[in-house]
Amino acid sequence: MEEIRFIMRTTNKEVCKEYQEAIPSLEIEEDRTHNAMDTFLASLDTIGESPSVNMEDDIILCKDFVEKVKQEIKKRPNDVIQFFSMRKDDLTIGSRYINGSQFKMNQCFYLPKGMSKELREYAKNWGRYEEHPTGFDILMADFFKERKIKYWNVCPNLVDHKVMKSRIDPRRSSKRQSFTFKED
Q1: From 179's CA, which of 62, 67, 156, 161 has a CA 20 to 30 Å away?
Q2: DSSP string of the chain, one letter each residue
């Protein structure tokens, strides 16, 4: 299996130090334009053709995060995999495929080989930036819908979202946590 790259989007590299201890190969994509969408697109450019785990800098990692992520990817190396969600079905159904048109939340997800580059090409002609200036999950949902891609939603989730005010949009609720995350 090709080496999986781990990349974290951030507004402040200092925040990423705690993650670098858990993920020694972590690459950092720092916001240079004060625009979350630009940073997301830059992370896709950085990854290029490689399989990758793309993360935000406001997550809590489960114990043995890298090993657990790699185990999940090994089972489905050619599928999109979501490691964080807030769906009630997570509690009743558990891990499952979900139509890509329903993709939400970009805290932590896996894109197989070549998909970051394909998504970046798609983004050049997306045309919904004014409507959704920080909606990279909407961009991804549109991309998946057009290509009829389903994604695998992992339960229990391997990351959680920290309780904090969003730096992208402070009007968002700070209570956007997983129903299934287990730190241990």
Answers
A1: 67
A2: -PPPEEEEEES-GGGGHHHHHH-TT-EEEE-SSS-HHHHHHHHHHHHTTS-EEEEESSEEEPTTHHHHHHHHHHH-TTSEEE-----THHHHT-SEEEEGGG----SEEEE-TTHHHHHHHHHTT---TTT-TT-HHHHHHHHHHHHT-EEEE-SS-SEEE-SS--SS-TTS-S----SS----
Are β-strands 80-82 and 150-153 bridged in parallel, bridged antiparallel, or unpaired? parallel
Quote the pLDDT of residue 164.
53
The reply to whether the predicted model has a pTM over 0.85 is yes
